[in-house]
Amino acid sequence: MPGAKADLILHPIRMQIIAAISTYRATAKELGEAMPEVPQTTLYRHINALVEGGILKIVEENPIRGTVERVYALAAPPTLAPEDLQGMTKQDYEQVFTMILTTLMSDARRYLASKPDSGEIDLLADGVEFSKIQLNLSDEEYKAMNRQIVDMMMAAANNEPSPKRRRRVFSYLFIPADG
Questions:
Q1: Which of 80, 129, 152, 158 is most deeply packed, by most CB within 10 A?
Q2: Angle at 25 between CA 168 and CA 127, to 5 degrees
Q3: Is the distance from CB of 72 to CB of 57 less than 8 angstroms?
Q4: Sign of the CA dihedral with 76 first, then 12, 105, and 178 last
Q5: Radius of gyration of the chain (CA)
């Protein structure tokens, strides 16, 4: 049986919320518009669970006609530690990979949807990069490299929005090539 954090993140509706909010801030109303199949009360219950679990945070509160509209963002990239993954089955792990790949595909679709149907798309000018490379690393080298990547991502994730900054999504996945 997976740990509590894995249960929190791996629930299908919460995975949709995380995927929908993974690259921007959103209100519950905006999340509801992105997921019209999820009833509003169910959506609020899952948003609250993600806030209580430390996955989402409230980044703004705007008074609107006697109520307060909250704007949510990811508190940090949702990651699972080894203790969160204990007891997971092969099917649970496949669900984790599916969540990661689904959020990556959502990002790609959102990018492509922002482009006109006619004309060329200039990936280089837009700063889109993707690659796949095989690395030969000892366990120590792999851990050091992964730690450097995480440290750089977390430092950049703390940057405040500004006119000079463009929001970008960085995804990566390490998988042993020899199984």
A1: 80
A2: 10
A3: yes
A4: positive
A5: 18
pLDDT band at 61 (very low <50, low <70, confident <90, very high): very high
pLDDT of residue 1: 52
Which residues are within 8 A (CB) of 18 and not within 5 positions of it... i.e. 6 or more apart? 9, 50, 55, 74, 78, 99, 103
Instruction: Give the whole-number percent of the chain exceeding pLDDT 90.
Output: 28
List of domains in the chain: 4-118 (1.10.10.10)
Q: What is the pLDDT of residues 111-132, one digit of tens each?
A: 888 888 887 888 888 889 888 8
Q: How many residues does the chain have?
A: 179
Span of 55-64, 96-105, 128-137 with lowest mean pLDDT: 96-105
73 DSSP β-pair partners: 57
Task: List the structure tokens of 172.
Answer: 């990566």
Overall pTM surpassing 0.85 (yes/no): no
177 within 8 A of 138, measured Cβ to Cβ: no
**What values do phi and psi take at 157, rounded to 5?**
-65, -20
